Structures are given as structure tokens and as C-alpha cells.
């Protein structure tokens, strides 16, 4: 009567001649004995439940889980990241931004919502080759986000990976680069992508750099993922590779000190990378899709 006819406990009590507290006890007993089973059927309730479980199991300040309609996981993750970023950024703050497909998707989905006196700053150098035209490169993404939020933008016209390690330190000491990275280190919020250790598919910027010595360093160090193209292990500890002294990006230790670092990622191949980054304190917030969120919970 309570579940099928939607009568109140008071209505049932009058109908069967019991007191309302007695009806309440009978209903509780029916649930405990499995006579009545309550299931959540609305997708939003499932998502809110998963978000709550992630916050309980991992040291996350904020979580946004997206439902995927069709097969566009990156679009769904981008939407979740865009919503979380907009909700997190206040007037006068500095937002540091990485690169990648999920970050690009987020930038494309941020609505025009002005944030007064905000600055969008680049966290790492530019991708070599043709990828900037695809919109995945940090300068392009920063410009897009700044446009939508009515913010200033701070960029640095330097490569992400230099050919010779001896070039990195002098390059990082150049005024434009040094001031941009210093501003990024003082950011209030950061938005970064999360990658697994295997570079797959056209357009993955590390694919051409995964030489045998780099792969061996990744394996030997137990790396599970990379953020800003810095590799790390299951506890968030840096894993040096031959690429490390050639990579122009904010170090992970400095990224950790940013009050809110939002990681945007989805896919089974990124579960270990996500968990390692959160456990290691690299990420403090997460935007992902529902299936990836379930896989994360299964791993914990």
C-alpha cells in the first residue's frame, strides 16, 4: 500500500487499524528482510550517488560525473569539466590551464559568463606540429576560455618539449616564460587533463617521444599516468624519464600547491592514472564520465 498505492503511513494505519509507528516499524522490517527492495531508477540519482561515493573514498574537494549519451565520452567529460570550472571560479582569480582533448572539450562548452578581473594562464609549452589547429593546444584553449569568461590571458610562445635538455633552463629563465609559470604557480584553480602511460591514437603528443629508453624509464619507475607530460606512480610520486629534462611545464610539486586542481578525464585506460593522481594530491577535484567513475570505485 505504501509503495504500490503511494498511501501515507497515516492512511495505512487508519485502513488496517494499526498505529502509525507500528506501520513504520513494519515497513522498516519489510526492507530489512528483503520483502521490499528499493532501487534508484533516475539517472541523476545514480550520478549523485556515485559522486558522493567518490568523495567519501578519495580526498576530493569536488566531483562532477557526466552521463554519456551515445559514444561521445570526451564531450561528456568536457561538459562536466566546464560546469565544475565555472562553478569554482570567482571574480579576481587566476585559472591555470593545461591541454588535451578533454580540456579542449571543456573550453568549447564554457558559456559566456563574465568573471571580473580574472586571468587565464598557460601551464605548459605548445605542442609541436599541426595540433594547435585542432584546438587541443594550451594557447588556443587559454584564449577560448578567456574569451568566454571575459578574462585576460597570459601565454608563453615556447615549445612543450625541447630537442636538447641544455636548452630548457635558459628558456625557462626568459622573462615571458618565467613570469607566466610564476603566475601559474600562484593560480587559484587549475584545469588539467590526465593521461595513461600508453600513448595511443593519432594526435597523442607523446607518441613520437616514446623511445625505448623512455618506455623503460616509465616501466622501471612504475608510472601509471602523466599530467602536464610529467609521469608519476600510483602514489603520485614523480617518475623521471629522459623526457623530464626536456619538458617545459609547471612541475607537479607546484601544481599540487594550487588550491583546486580539476582533472578532466574519462576511459578505462585512465582509471589508474586518475586514482594515482588523486591519492598523490596532484588532483583535488575530478570531472569524469559515469562508467569511468564506476571503474574507479571498483578499483578502490
From TrEMBL:
Pfam families in the record: MarR_2, Sugar-bind
UniProt-recorded Gene Ontology molecular function terms: carbohydrate binding; DNA binding; DNA-binding transcription factor activity
UniProt keyword annotations, A-Z: DNA-binding, Transcription, Transcription regulation
InterPro entries per UniProt: HTH_CRP, HTH_MarR-typ, NagB/RpiA_transferase-like, SorC_transcr_regulators, Sugar-bd_dom_put
Domain HTH crp-type: 1-51
PROSITE patterns: HTH_CRP_2
Protein family membership: Belongs to the SorC transcriptional regulatory family.
Protein name, per record: HTH crp-type domain-containing protein
Organism: Actinomyces glycerinitolerans
